[in-house]
């Protein structure tokens, strides 16, 4: 019998996590953090890792826009405790064109849905959890990013609905909404002096964050200590949303 009054347990030891976009900045930091805390990890991405992966991490090539590949993936990852959808891209030059719009929404939103439904049986067996990645753009618009903003806002709703729907299987579904993180996806904005100044003027901590600064929230949500948290999107944004 589970003793629900026991002291909180923040361990992810022995869990297996799958991280899409796992050779990217945030996914890569999550993979390192999970392994350092005793978990094993499968990272998936469209591009192979640039540097050798640490022990306990394996790589599977996956484009999250591919229905069949997502549906088939559980055959290669038979046991899963934590599913984290980190794959992502934005495209300032194409998001006002319908093809570009569809492509970005496909990766962030449809990708999340494809993987959560594909891995539902594994997550049911482990009483595991799903973590989506939202954004500060889950809460406000951006003139060059209509698709990215729409997808990130929809992730909040998908997270709520999946949390309801999967609860009967003992699966929790949450999201993390990062602020301004120093990775490839944010490089163009970060290196634009005008854009950077606008962000810094509003951002209380006045700096771009390291991807590892998000990992504590992912570990917490995946651990027994996070077991009452379900259906929420947690801003981890240095206070940006508070201003
Ligand atoms: N960096 C930030 O400031 C920031 C802020 C808020 C949210 N996010 C979100 O965090 C997540 C991770 O982004 P990041 O900052 O690590 O960026 P990143 O560019 O370092 O990593 C993204 C990864 O996704 C992969 N990817 C792109 N398209 C894919 C596809 N079709 N299939 C599979 N993989 C694909 C890329 O190859 C890359 O490795 C994304 O969802 C992003 O929108 C980032």
Offer a few descriptive terms.
Rossmann fold, alpha/beta, binds nicotinamide-adenine-dinucleotide, seven-stranded parallel β-sheet, 7 strands, 243 residues
Structure description:
- With about 240 residues, the protein is α/β, with parallel strands linked by helices.
- The chain has one domain: NAD(P)-binding Rossmann-like Domain (Rossmann fold).
- About 35% of the residues lie in helices and about 15% in strands.
- The protein has a seven-stranded parallel sheet, sandwiched between helices.
- Helix 1 crosses helix 8 and helix 3 runs parallel beside helix 5.
- The relative contact order is 0.15.
- The model has no long low-confidence stretch (mean pLDDT about 95).
- The structure holds nicotinamide-adenine-dinucleotide.
- The site of nicotinamide-adenine-dinucleotide has 29 residues, from helix 1 and helix 3.
- The site of nicotinamide-adenine-dinucleotide (NAD) has 29 residues, from helix 1 and helix 3.
Proportion of residues in helical segments: 25-40%
Strand content: 5-15%
What is the assigned CATH homologous superfamily? NAD(P)-binding Rossmann-like Domain
CATH architecture: 3-Layer(aba) Sandwich
Fill in the CATH topology. Rossmann fold
Outline the biggest β-sheet. 7 strands, parallel
Mean pLDDT: 97
Order of helices and strands: EHEEHEHHEHEHHHE
Number of domains: 1
Task: Please render the helix and strand layout as text.
Layout: E1 16-20, H1 25-36, E2 40-45, E3 57-61, H2 67-72, E4 82-85, H3 98-118, H4 120-126, E5 129-133, H5 146-166, E6 172-178, H6 187-190, H7 193-202, H8 215-222, E7 233-236
Parallel strand pairs: 1-2, 1-4, 2-3, 4-5, 5-6, 6-7
Nicotinamide-adenine-dinucleotide (NAD) binds next to helix 1 and helix 3.
């Amino acid at each position: 019998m589970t003793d629900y009054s026991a002291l909180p347990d923040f361990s992810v030891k022995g869990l297996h996590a799958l991280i899409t976009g796992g050779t990217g900045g945030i996914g890569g930091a999550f993979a390192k953090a999970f392994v350092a805390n005793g978990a094993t990890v499968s990272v998936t991405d469209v591009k192979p890792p640039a540097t050798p992966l640490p022990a306990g991490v394996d790589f599977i090539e996956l484009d999250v826009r591919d229905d069949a590949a997502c549906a088939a993936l559980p055959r290669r990852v038979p046991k899963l405790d934590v599913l984290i959808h980190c794959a992502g891209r934005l495209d300032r030059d194409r998001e006002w064109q319908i093809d570009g719009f569809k492509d970005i929404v496909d990766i962030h939103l449809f990708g999340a849905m494809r993987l959560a439904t594909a891995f539902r049986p594994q997550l049911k067996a482990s009483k595991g959890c799903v973590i989506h990645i939202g954004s500060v753009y889950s809460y406000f618009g951006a003139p060059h990013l209509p698709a990215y903003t729409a997808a990130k806002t929809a992730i909040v709703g998908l997270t709520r609905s999946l949390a309801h729907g999967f609860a009967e299987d003992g699966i929790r579904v949450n999201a993390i909404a990062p602020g301004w993180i120093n990775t490839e996806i944010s490089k163009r904005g970060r290196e634009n002096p005008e854009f950077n100044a606008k962000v810094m003027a509003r951002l209380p901590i006045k700096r771009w964050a390291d991807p590892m600064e998000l990992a504590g929230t992912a570990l917490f949500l995946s651990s027994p200590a996070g077991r009452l948290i379900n259906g929420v999107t947690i801003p981890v944004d240095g206070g940006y949303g508070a201003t």
